[in-house]
Design a protein that fits this description.
- The complex is a heterodimer of chains A (113) and B (112).
- With 113 residues, chain A is mainly β.
- Chain A is 0% helix and 58% strand.
- Chain A contains no helices and eleven strands.
- Chain B has 112 residues and is an all-beta fold.
- In chain B, strands 2, 4, 5, 6, 9, 10 and 11 form a seven-stranded mixed sheet that branches. In chain B, strands 1-3-8-7 form a four-stranded antiparallel sheet, with no helix packed on it.
- The model of chain B has no long low-confidence stretch (mean pLDDT 94).
- Classes of the chains: A mainly beta (113), B mainly beta (112).
- The interface between A and B is medium-sized, with 21 and 20 residues.
Chain lengths: 113, 112
């Protein structure tokens, strides 16, 4: 299958706190997992990605972890700021299906000042 | 560097009218190209993708069609729009590694 499940659907955090979004995938052949941030009225922008040969990747306040055995991966945003408010999408690549990406349903993150 | 353009940015069309949305990519050659639709407050639905000129794969049966007349041009069309065609249409491309998809700014379509 090509399902990607994403939780939670909405997340409200106090400025300065951390935010965590979790995704699971069903196809063990998936080997690439990008995360996108979409601001209102704009196209999704890639913020971080991870490949299956790595368990964790960090870029400043953003980190992604991958557990291939359990088929789940997570986005961690530390020291959240108001500009982190957006919709976040996880995705998984299916190399055996023409390299198509399957997206989660999205998480609306609101950072309260 | 590579850039992706979509136009128009916003479009209001009556039911039954035709549609043509255009997407072009600069700074790369032989990209994979994708059309997605996003309903309000919803996720991304893949509509079409293309791995080369004249090669179009459709993901879901619908009122829309796609064409790729040039290497870096992807067009989404309809002969007669339906109310349900309203949404935010996104074009994306990947490079030779065929992993990371980069999205355009989108076209917001409202069918009345």
């Amino acid at each position: 299958g090509e399902n990607v499940e994403q939780h939670p659907s909405t997340l409200s955090v106090q400025e300065g706190d951390s935010a965590v979004i979790k995704c699971t995938y069903s196809d063990s052949a998936s080997n690439y997992f990008p995360w996108y941030k979409q601001e209102l009225g704009k196209g999704p922008q890639l913020i971080i990605d991870i490949r299956s040969n790595v368990g964790e990747k960090k870029d400043q306040r953003i980190a992604v972890t991958l557990n291939k055995t359990a088929k789940h991966f997570s986005l961690h945003i530390t020291e959240t700021q108001p500009e982190d408010s957006a919709v976040y999408f996880c995705a998984a690549l299916f190399p055996l299906r023409d390299y198509k990406l399957s997206f989660g349903a999205g998480t609306t993150v609101t950072v309260r000042a | 560097s590579q850039t992706i353009h979509q136009w128009p940015a916003t479009l209001v069309q009556p039911v039954g009218s035709p549609l043509s949305l255009e997407c072009t990519v600069e700074g790369t050659s032989n990209p994979n190209l994708y059309w997605y639709r996003q309903a309000a407050g919803r996720g991304l639905q893949l509509l079409f993708y293309s791995v080369g000129i004249g090669q179009i794969s459709s993901e879901v049966p619908q009122n829309l069609s796609a064409s790729r007349p040039q290497d870096r041009q992807f067009i989404l069309s309809s002969k007669k729009l339906l109310l349900s065609d309203s949404g935010f249409y996104l074009c994306a491309w990947t490079g030779n590694e065929r992993e990371t998809q980069y999205f355009g700014p989108g076209t917001r379509l409202l069918v009345l």
